[in-house]
Amino acid sequence: MAELPHILVVDDSRVVRVSLIQHLKGHYEVREEGDGEAAWQTLVVDHSIKAVISDLQMPKLNGYELLERLRTSKLRRLQQLPFILVSGEETEEERAKAKSLGVSDFVTKGAGGTELLTRLNNLLSLTTAQENLEADRERLVQDPVSGLFTRKYLEMQAAQALSHAARHGLDVSVMVLGFDGFDSLCQRLGVQVAEEICNRFAKMLAGKMRHEDSLGHCGLGQFAIVSPGTAPAFCATFAERVREAVEMAKLVIQGETVALTVSIGLASVPTDPVSSAAALLDLAGGRMHVAMGGGGNRTESGGISPATRPISINHALELLAGNRVEPVVPHLHSLGERLMPLLQLINKELGLDLPLAEIERRLSERKLQKN
Known about the structure:
By secondary structure, the protein is an alpha/beta fold. It has helices spanning 14-24, 36-45, 63-71, 76-79, 92-101, 113-141, 151-168, 182-189, 191-206, 232-248, 277-293, 313-321, 332-349, 356-370, and strands at 6-10, 29-33, 49-55, 83-87, 105-108, 172-179, 214-219, 222-228, 250-253, 256-259, 262-269, 299-300. 29% of the residues are buried.
Protein backbone atom coordinates (compact mmCIF):
# COMPACT_ATOMS: atom_id res chain seq x y z
CA MET A 1 0.00 0.00 0.00
CA ALA A 2 1.39 3.38 -1.01
CA GLU A 3 2.44 5.68 1.81
CA LEU A 4 0.08 8.61 2.37
CA PRO A 5 1.40 12.17 1.89
CA HIS A 6 2.49 13.83 5.15
CA ILE A 7 0.75 17.00 6.36
CA LEU A 8 1.60 19.20 9.35
CA VAL A 9 -1.30 20.66 11.37
CA VAL A 10 -0.37 23.58 13.66
CA ASP A 11 -2.82 24.97 16.24
CA ASP A 12 -2.58 25.74 19.94
CA SER A 13 -6.03 24.21 20.44
CA ARG A 14 -6.02 20.46 20.90
CA VAL A 15 -9.71 20.37 19.98
CA VAL A 16 -9.09 22.11 16.64
CA ARG A 17 -6.17 19.83 15.84
CA VAL A 18 -8.26 16.72 16.53
CA SER A 19 -11.05 18.07 14.31
CA LEU A 20 -8.69 18.77 11.40
CA ILE A 21 -7.01 15.39 11.78
CA GLN A 22 -10.39 13.67 11.61
CA HIS A 23 -11.08 15.38 8.27
CA LEU A 24 -7.68 14.33 6.90
CA LYS A 25 -7.59 10.81 8.29
CA GLY A 26 -7.42 8.14 5.61
CA HIS A 27 -6.26 10.63 2.99
CA TYR A 28 -3.07 11.98 4.61
CA GLU A 29 -0.57 11.05 7.32
CA VAL A 30 -0.77 13.92 9.84
CA ARG A 31 1.79 15.36 12.25
CA GLU A 32 0.66 17.96 14.75
CA GLU A 33 2.30 20.77 16.72
CA GLY A 34 0.85 23.19 19.28
CA ASP A 35 2.83 26.34 18.45
CA GLY A 36 4.66 27.99 15.56
CA GLU A 37 8.18 27.53 16.92
CA ALA A 38 7.73 23.76 17.36
CA ALA A 39 6.23 23.63 13.86
CA TRP A 40 9.27 25.44 12.43
CA GLN A 41 11.68 22.96 14.04
CA THR A 42 9.66 20.06 12.66
CA LEU A 43 9.58 21.49 9.15
CA VAL A 44 13.34 22.01 9.07
CA VAL A 45 14.15 18.40 9.92
CA ASP A 46 11.20 16.51 8.38
CA HIS A 47 11.57 16.49 4.59
CA SER A 48 8.49 14.31 4.13
CA ILE A 49 5.98 17.05 4.96
CA LYS A 50 4.16 18.17 1.81
CA ALA A 51 1.91 20.96 3.20
CA VAL A 52 1.09 22.97 6.33
CA ILE A 53 -2.33 23.81 7.78
CA SER A 54 -1.84 26.49 10.42
CA ASP A 55 -3.81 28.66 12.81
CA LEU A 56 -3.03 32.39 12.88
CA GLN A 57 -2.97 33.21 16.59
CA MET A 58 -0.49 30.93 18.37
CA PRO A 59 2.12 31.26 21.16
CA LYS A 60 5.88 31.59 20.58
CA LEU A 61 5.50 32.05 16.81
CA ASN A 62 2.19 33.02 15.21
CA GLY A 63 0.93 32.03 11.78
CA TYR A 64 2.30 35.15 10.08
CA GLU A 65 5.76 34.64 11.55
CA LEU A 66 5.83 30.94 10.69
CA LEU A 67 4.79 31.72 7.11
CA GLU A 68 7.43 34.44 6.80
CA ARG A 69 10.14 32.08 8.02
CA LEU A 70 9.17 29.54 5.40
CA ARG A 71 9.07 31.98 2.52
CA THR A 72 12.43 33.58 3.47
CA SER A 73 14.15 30.28 4.22
CA LYS A 74 17.30 29.30 2.34
CA LEU A 75 15.73 25.87 1.81
CA ARG A 76 13.90 25.81 -1.51
CA ARG A 77 11.43 23.13 -0.38
CA LEU A 78 10.27 25.40 2.48
CA GLN A 79 10.01 28.45 0.23
CA GLN A 80 7.55 26.58 -2.01
CA LEU A 81 5.73 24.48 0.61
CA PRO A 82 1.90 24.83 0.34
CA PHE A 83 0.63 26.76 3.39
CA ILE A 84 -3.09 26.90 4.27
CA LEU A 85 -4.12 29.40 6.91
CA VAL A 86 -7.12 28.57 9.07
CA SER A 87 -8.95 31.88 9.29
CA GLY A 88 -11.53 33.06 11.81
CA GLU A 89 -12.43 36.67 12.45
CA GLU A 90 -9.49 38.20 10.55
CA THR A 91 -9.95 41.53 8.83
CA GLU A 92 -9.36 42.09 5.13
CA GLU A 93 -6.09 43.83 6.05
CA GLU A 94 -4.91 40.73 7.92
CA ARG A 95 -5.83 38.47 5.03
CA ALA A 96 -4.01 40.83 2.66
CA LYS A 97 -0.94 40.61 4.91
CA ALA A 98 -1.04 36.83 4.74
CA LYS A 99 -1.27 36.99 0.94
CA SER A 100 1.70 39.36 0.77
CA LEU A 101 3.73 36.89 2.85
CA GLY A 102 2.94 34.10 0.41
CA VAL A 103 0.02 32.13 1.88
CA SER A 104 -1.24 29.48 -0.53
CA ASP A 105 -4.90 29.41 0.53
CA PHE A 106 -7.38 30.08 3.34
CA VAL A 107 -9.92 27.80 4.96
CA THR A 108 -12.44 29.05 7.49
CA LYS A 109 -12.70 27.55 10.94
CA GLY A 110 -15.50 25.02 11.04
CA ALA A 111 -15.23 24.24 7.32
CA GLY A 112 -16.26 20.73 6.44
CA GLY A 113 -13.91 17.93 5.47
CA THR A 114 -14.87 18.08 1.80
CA GLU A 115 -13.83 21.72 1.45
CA LEU A 116 -10.55 21.16 3.32
CA LEU A 117 -9.64 18.09 1.28
CA THR A 118 -10.55 19.79 -1.99
CA ARG A 119 -8.33 22.81 -1.29
CA LEU A 120 -5.46 20.64 -0.07
CA ASN A 121 -5.69 18.21 -2.99
CA ASN A 122 -5.73 21.09 -5.49
CA LEU A 123 -2.67 22.69 -3.89
CA LEU A 124 -0.68 19.45 -3.87
CA SER A 125 -1.65 18.70 -7.48
CA LEU A 126 -0.46 22.17 -8.50
CA THR A 127 2.80 21.72 -6.57
CA THR A 128 3.42 18.35 -8.24
CA ALA A 129 2.80 19.86 -11.68
CA GLN A 130 5.24 22.71 -10.94
CA GLU A 131 7.90 20.27 -9.71
CA ASN A 132 7.51 18.17 -12.86
CA LEU A 133 7.81 21.28 -15.03
CA GLU A 134 10.99 22.37 -13.23
CA ALA A 135 12.42 18.86 -13.56
CA ASP A 136 11.70 18.93 -17.31
CA ARG A 137 13.45 22.30 -17.60
CA GLU A 138 16.46 20.99 -15.70
CA ARG A 139 16.65 17.95 -17.97
CA LEU A 140 16.59 20.29 -20.97
CA VAL A 141 19.42 22.41 -19.57
CA GLN A 142 21.52 19.96 -17.59
CA ASP A 143 22.78 16.50 -18.45
CA PRO A 144 22.01 14.24 -15.43
CA VAL A 145 25.30 12.31 -15.67
CA SER A 146 27.91 15.01 -16.32
CA GLY A 147 26.05 17.98 -14.82
CA LEU A 148 26.97 19.94 -17.98
CA PHE A 149 24.64 21.57 -20.49
CA THR A 150 22.67 19.29 -22.81
CA ARG A 151 22.97 19.26 -26.60
CA LYS A 152 19.53 20.90 -26.86
CA TYR A 153 20.55 23.74 -24.55
CA LEU A 154 23.79 24.24 -26.51
CA GLU A 155 21.69 24.67 -29.65
CA MET A 156 19.70 27.38 -27.89
CA GLN A 157 22.91 29.11 -26.78
CA ALA A 158 24.36 28.87 -30.27
CA ALA A 159 21.16 30.24 -31.83
CA GLN A 160 21.26 33.22 -29.48
CA ALA A 161 24.94 33.80 -30.27
CA LEU A 162 24.28 33.60 -34.02
CA SER A 163 21.49 36.16 -33.76
CA HIS A 164 23.74 38.56 -31.85
CA ALA A 165 26.66 37.95 -34.22
CA ALA A 166 24.52 38.68 -37.30
CA ARG A 167 23.56 42.09 -35.88
CA HIS A 168 27.07 43.07 -34.83
CA GLY A 169 29.26 41.39 -37.45
CA LEU A 170 30.93 38.97 -35.03
CA ASP A 171 32.19 35.39 -35.30
CA VAL A 172 30.67 32.41 -33.53
CA SER A 173 32.84 29.30 -33.23
CA VAL A 174 31.91 25.80 -32.10
CA MET A 175 34.25 23.03 -31.00
CA VAL A 176 33.13 19.41 -30.65
CA LEU A 177 35.59 16.98 -29.09
CA GLY A 178 35.37 13.23 -28.62
CA PHE A 179 37.63 10.83 -26.78
CA ASP A 180 39.32 8.44 -29.20
CA GLY A 181 38.58 4.76 -28.61
CA PHE A 182 35.82 5.50 -26.11
CA ASP A 183 34.09 2.16 -26.83
CA SER A 184 37.31 0.29 -26.02
CA LEU A 185 37.69 2.33 -22.84
CA CYS A 186 34.18 1.31 -21.81
CA GLN A 187 34.99 -2.35 -22.41
CA ARG A 188 38.20 -2.14 -20.36
CA LEU A 189 36.92 -0.11 -17.40
CA GLY A 190 33.13 -0.17 -17.64
CA VAL A 191 30.82 2.53 -18.97
CA GLN A 192 30.44 4.33 -15.65
CA VAL A 193 34.19 4.64 -15.01
CA ALA A 194 34.84 5.67 -18.62
CA GLU A 195 32.20 8.41 -18.39
CA GLU A 196 33.59 9.63 -15.07
CA ILE A 197 37.08 9.96 -16.60
CA CYS A 198 35.76 11.96 -19.56
CA ASN A 199 33.54 14.10 -17.35
CA ARG A 200 36.54 14.88 -15.14
CA PHE A 201 38.46 16.22 -18.14
CA ALA A 202 35.40 18.16 -19.29
CA LYS A 203 35.05 19.88 -15.91
CA MET A 204 38.76 20.77 -15.96
CA LEU A 205 38.17 22.22 -19.41
CA ALA A 206 35.28 24.29 -18.05
CA GLY A 207 37.72 26.05 -15.73
CA LYS A 208 39.84 27.19 -18.70
CA MET A 209 37.00 28.74 -20.70
CA ARG A 210 35.71 32.28 -20.82
CA HIS A 211 32.59 33.14 -18.86
CA GLU A 212 30.62 33.71 -22.06
CA ASP A 213 31.47 30.27 -23.51
CA SER A 214 29.13 27.30 -22.98
CA LEU A 215 30.34 23.73 -22.44
CA GLY A 216 27.94 20.85 -22.89
CA HIS A 217 27.62 17.08 -23.14
CA CYS A 218 26.54 15.91 -26.58
CA GLY A 219 27.07 12.15 -26.53
CA LEU A 220 28.99 9.35 -24.83
CA GLY A 221 32.54 10.61 -24.48
CA GLN A 222 31.71 13.71 -26.53
CA PHE A 223 31.48 17.38 -25.55
CA ALA A 224 30.93 20.70 -27.30
CA ILE A 225 31.84 24.33 -26.66
CA VAL A 226 29.91 27.25 -28.10
CA SER A 227 32.17 30.30 -28.18
CA PRO A 228 30.53 33.63 -29.18
CA GLY A 229 32.79 36.33 -30.58
CA THR A 230 35.75 33.97 -31.11
CA ALA A 231 37.48 33.97 -34.49
CA PRO A 232 38.08 30.54 -36.06
CA ALA A 233 41.87 30.79 -35.84
CA PHE A 234 41.81 31.43 -32.10
CA CYS A 235 39.30 28.62 -31.61
CA ALA A 236 41.71 26.34 -33.50
CA THR A 237 44.54 27.46 -31.20
CA PHE A 238 42.48 26.63 -28.12
CA ALA A 239 41.50 23.27 -29.62
CA GLU A 240 45.13 22.35 -30.15
CA ARG A 241 45.96 23.23 -26.56
CA VAL A 242 43.12 21.03 -25.35
CA ARG A 243 44.22 18.17 -27.58
CA GLU A 244 47.84 18.42 -26.38
CA ALA A 245 46.81 18.66 -22.72
CA VAL A 246 44.75 15.47 -22.95
CA GLU A 247 47.53 13.67 -24.81
CA MET A 248 50.09 14.55 -22.13
CA ALA A 249 47.87 13.61 -19.19
CA LYS A 250 48.42 10.19 -17.64
CA LEU A 251 45.77 8.75 -15.36
CA VAL A 252 46.04 5.75 -13.08
CA ILE A 253 42.66 4.02 -12.88
CA GLN A 254 42.21 0.76 -10.96
CA GLY A 255 45.98 0.36 -10.91
CA GLU A 256 46.21 0.76 -14.67
CA THR A 257 47.80 3.70 -16.49
CA VAL A 258 45.30 5.11 -18.97
CA ALA A 259 46.50 7.26 -21.87
CA LEU A 260 43.80 9.30 -23.58
CA THR A 261 43.58 11.33 -26.75
CA VAL A 262 40.81 13.40 -28.29
CA SER A 263 39.74 14.28 -31.80
CA ILE A 264 38.29 17.74 -32.30
CA GLY A 265 36.07 19.24 -34.97
CA LEU A 266 35.64 22.99 -35.46
CA ALA A 267 33.07 25.08 -37.29
CA SER A 268 32.34 28.80 -37.31
CA VAL A 269 30.10 31.47 -38.72
CA PRO A 270 30.42 33.33 -41.06
CA THR A 271 33.35 31.22 -42.32
CA ASP A 272 31.17 28.13 -42.73
CA PRO A 273 27.90 28.67 -44.65
CA VAL A 274 25.37 27.05 -42.32
CA SER A 275 21.73 27.94 -41.88
CA SER A 276 21.13 27.17 -38.19
CA ALA A 277 22.69 26.55 -34.80
CA ALA A 278 21.96 22.81 -35.11
CA ALA A 279 23.71 22.72 -38.50
CA LEU A 280 26.75 24.48 -37.01
CA LEU A 281 27.03 21.89 -34.23
CA ASP A 282 26.46 19.06 -36.71
CA LEU A 283 29.22 20.38 -38.97
CA ALA A 284 31.70 20.53 -36.08
CA GLY A 285 30.60 17.04 -34.99
CA GLY A 286 31.07 15.72 -38.51
CA ARG A 287 34.58 17.14 -38.64
CA MET A 288 35.34 15.49 -35.31
CA HIS A 289 34.38 12.12 -36.83
CA VAL A 290 36.62 12.87 -39.82
CA ALA A 291 39.50 13.50 -37.40
CA MET A 292 38.77 10.20 -35.63
CA GLY A 293 38.61 8.39 -38.96
CA GLY A 294 42.00 9.83 -39.89
CA GLY A 295 43.67 8.16 -36.95
CA GLY A 296 42.50 10.32 -34.05
CA ASN A 297 44.42 12.71 -31.83
CA ARG A 298 44.00 15.54 -34.30
CA THR A 299 41.93 18.63 -35.03
CA GLU A 300 39.83 19.03 -38.17
CA SER A 301 39.04 22.71 -38.71
CA GLY A 302 37.93 22.89 -42.31
CA GLY A 303 41.21 24.46 -43.40
CA ILE A 304 41.57 27.07 -40.65
CA SER A 305 45.10 27.32 -39.23
CA PRO A 306 45.58 27.99 -35.52
CA ALA A 307 46.58 31.52 -34.58
CA THR A 308 50.10 31.58 -33.19
CA ARG A 309 50.27 32.73 -29.61
CA PRO A 310 53.31 32.67 -27.32
CA ILE A 311 53.37 29.66 -25.02
CA SER A 312 54.44 29.85 -21.41
CA ILE A 313 57.80 28.53 -20.23
CA ASN A 314 56.00 26.00 -18.02
CA HIS A 315 54.00 24.73 -20.97
CA ALA A 316 57.14 24.44 -23.07
CA LEU A 317 58.86 22.42 -20.32
CA GLU A 318 55.83 20.13 -20.04
CA LEU A 319 55.92 19.51 -23.79
CA LEU A 320 59.64 18.75 -23.71
CA ALA A 321 59.17 16.42 -20.74
CA GLY A 322 56.62 14.58 -22.85
CA ASN A 323 59.15 14.33 -25.69
CA ARG A 324 57.13 16.77 -27.80
CA VAL A 325 59.72 19.08 -29.38
CA GLU A 326 57.83 20.16 -32.49
CA PRO A 327 55.24 22.40 -30.76
CA VAL A 328 58.04 24.24 -28.91
CA VAL A 329 60.27 25.05 -31.88
CA PRO A 330 58.07 27.85 -33.36
CA HIS A 331 58.26 29.69 -30.02
CA LEU A 332 62.01 29.47 -29.41
CA HIS A 333 62.65 33.16 -30.01
CA SER A 334 60.04 34.36 -27.50
CA LEU A 335 61.03 31.70 -24.95
CA GLY A 336 64.70 32.63 -25.34
CA GLU A 337 64.00 36.33 -24.84
CA ARG A 338 62.12 35.60 -21.62
CA LEU A 339 64.87 33.29 -20.36
CA MET A 340 67.74 35.65 -21.18
CA PRO A 341 67.75 37.44 -17.76
CA LEU A 342 68.01 34.03 -16.06
CA LEU A 343 70.84 32.96 -18.36
CA GLN A 344 72.67 36.20 -17.61
CA LEU A 345 72.35 35.59 -13.87
CA ILE A 346 73.56 31.99 -14.20
CA ASN A 347 76.49 33.17 -16.33
CA LYS A 348 77.47 35.75 -13.72
CA GLU A 349 76.99 33.68 -10.55
CA LEU A 350 78.77 30.59 -11.88
CA GLY A 351 81.55 32.51 -13.60
CA LEU A 352 80.79 30.98 -16.97
CA ASP A 353 81.53 32.35 -20.38
CA LEU A 354 78.29 31.63 -22.19
CA PRO A 355 77.96 33.11 -25.70
CA LEU A 356 74.99 35.25 -24.65
CA ALA A 357 75.53 37.87 -27.34
CA GLU A 358 75.56 35.17 -30.01
CA ILE A 359 72.41 33.60 -28.56
CA GLU A 360 70.64 36.98 -28.60
CA ARG A 361 71.74 37.58 -32.19
CA ARG A 362 70.50 34.17 -33.35
CA LEU A 363 67.17 34.67 -31.57
CA SER A 364 66.74 38.06 -33.24
CA GLU A 365 67.46 36.53 -36.64
CA ARG A 366 64.90 33.80 -36.04
CA LYS A 367 62.34 36.42 -35.02
CA LEU A 368 62.96 38.46 -38.18
CA GLN A 369 62.69 35.34 -40.36
CA LYS A 370 59.41 34.42 -38.72
CA ASN A 371 57.99 37.93 -39.28
